[in-house]
Amino acid sequence: MRNRARARRIKMILMDVDGTLTDGTLAVLPDGEEIKAYNVKDGLGVLLAQLIDLKLGIITGKRSQGLVRRAERLKIAELHQGVIDKKPVFDDILKRHGLAPEEAAYIGDDIGDLEVMAAAGLAAAVADAHKLVKKQATTSASSPAAGGPSGSSSISSSTPRGRATSSRPGSNASSIEKSDRRQGRFSWRSTRTFSANTTSGGSSTRT
C-alpha cells in the first residue's frame, strides 16, 4: 500500500520523545534532573494534526517532568513515560480509542520503537534514526530529530489526508487553506515541504 493511501486511514499519531521530538541530547542537573530541548516548530505539527481531528500520544522510555508540562501545553492527553516494552501500551491505547493498528501512525528513532513501528499502519523515522528503524519505516524524514515539525517534520510526515504544499521562507506558517479543510486535508506555508512520502518541515510559529 502506498504511503498516501496508508496516511488517509490514520486517526492517531503516537511518537517517541528522545531522538524524535528532541535531538537526543540530555543535560543533567546536580540534583539528577534531566533537561531536554524541544524545538518550538514541533508544536506547529501538533497543532496542524489537531486541526484535522487527529489524536496524538507519546510513548517514551524515560521520565521527565518537563515532558509532562510540554504535553499539557500541547494538549496531548496520552502521555506514557517509563515504558520499556512499548507494544502493550500501543495496543492498550488503540483499544481504548476503538482504533485498529492500521489507523495509527508511529514516529520513532531507535530499536525500542521497532515492534510498534511494525504494527502501526504508518511508521515514520527521523533522518538520523537507527538503520534498523529506517528499514522498518514506511516513510523517513529528511531532517534530523527536532530539526523542525514530528521533530515537527516527523509529525507532519505522518499526518494524513493530503500533503503540505511547497513554500518559500517568510510565508505565513499558520495558513490553512479552506479548500483543503473541506476535503479533510491541510496545507501550510513554511520553509520546507512535507508530505506522506516526502519529508520535512518548519515554521516560524512558536508553540
Give a structural overview.
By secondary structure, this protein is of the alpha/beta class. The chain has one domain (3-182): Rossmann fold (3-Layer(aba) Sandwich). Helix content is 30%, strand content 13%. It has helices at 3-8, 41-51, 65-73, 86-97, 114-119, 131-136, 152-158, 178-182; strands at residues 12-15, 27-28, 34-35, 55-59, 78-80, 104-108, 122-125, 139-140. A six-stranded parallel beta sheet has the order 5-4-1-6-7-8, sandwiched between helices. Strands 2-3 form a two-stranded antiparallel ribbon.
Short overview:
The chain has helices at 3-8, 41-51, 65-73, 86-97, 114-119, 131-136, 152-158, 178-182, and strands spanning 12-15, 27-28, 34-35, 55-59, 78-80, 104-108, 122-125, 139-140. The chain has 207 residues and is α/β, with parallel strands linked by helices. The strands form 2 sheets. A 6-stranded parallel sheet has the order 5-4-1-6-7-8, with helices on both faces.
